[in-house]
Amino acid sequence: MVIRTNRTLLTRREAARLLGISERRVSALNASGQLESVAVGSSALFTEDSVRRQSRWRGTDGRPYSPGMAFGALYMLSGLDASWLSRQQRYRLKGYLERMDAENLVRLTRRRATMVEYWCRDSNLGKVADLVRSSAATGVLADSFQLAATDVVEGYIITDALDDAVRRCRLKQGMMPIRVRLRAVDMLPAGEGPMPLAVCAADLAESNDPRERRAGLETLQQLIDDYRRKEHQE
Questions:
Q1: Measured distance CA(159)–CA(233) in Å, rounded
Q2: CA distance 69 to 71
């Protein structure tokens, strides 16, 4: 079998060694969408990028938020109402945000979506953009983070619509260069246009690109500081 990719791929054993966990745990992380893999017959190879992203959380304390709580925290930081949360949940999040920094927020909200990366033809990138709520530094969003615009499309999509988008836009996994990053979610808060600023910043803060990661963390910290000042004024 020929695997058409320029990305570094790791065996299950290699991924387990890098993460310091068992091979069974690697399989569990893959099943939950926290690792990206390429199918090879009845087994799988894991992208080094996704393994290294996961390695950042090794040894950290505290259970990550549920998707609803994660989106709630990021929407509240963006000045939006997290209407899907109960009053008690919003109260708890306010308390958490009073003592949280950007690095910890990224860690706690990391399970809000499952990210999958694809190759895509130039002619189909516009179709992809029309099917998702754009995020990170896609298109004009790059200006918000003082980053150079790229031709990568990144955005959120409902999990049930993912397969149809892949088919319609002829997206391919395991091929380079990466042109599309889709973050699949079971629950996507209502709204149109790009995702809120804090969501975009959290996506960038998870990037393996140092410039994107720094831009995301700096924006998140500024949003946290602004949120605290506003809360103290009320």
A1: 40
A2: 5
Q: In this structure, what token pair is assigned to residue 15? A: 């991924």
Burial class (CB in 10 A: 0-12, 13-18, 19+), 81: exposed
Q: How far apart are CA 65 and CA 67, in angstroms?
A: 6
pLDDT in tens, 148-180: 988 899 999 999 999 999 999 999 987 888 999
pTM for the model: 0.78
Triad 218, 186, 38: Cα angle to 5°:
80
Name 73's Cβ contacts closer than 8 Å, sequence gap at least 6: 65, 82, 93, 96, 97, 105, 108, 109, 198
DSSP states along 173-203: TT-SS--EEEEEES---S--SSPPHHHHHHH
Instruction: State phi, psi for 166 to the nearest 5 degrees.
Output: -60, -40
Q: Which residue has the tokens 């992809």?
A: 128
**CA 209/CA 144 separation, integer angstroms:** 17
Give the list of residues 6+ apart from residue 67 with CB closer than 8 angstroms, or none.
111, 112, 113, 185, 186, 187
Distance CA 82, CA 171 (A): 32
* Cα 60 from Cα 7, distance rounded (Å): 28
Rounded Cα gap, residues 197 and 217, in angstroms? 12
Q: How far is CA 60 from CA 64, 165, 214, in A?
A: 10, 35, 20
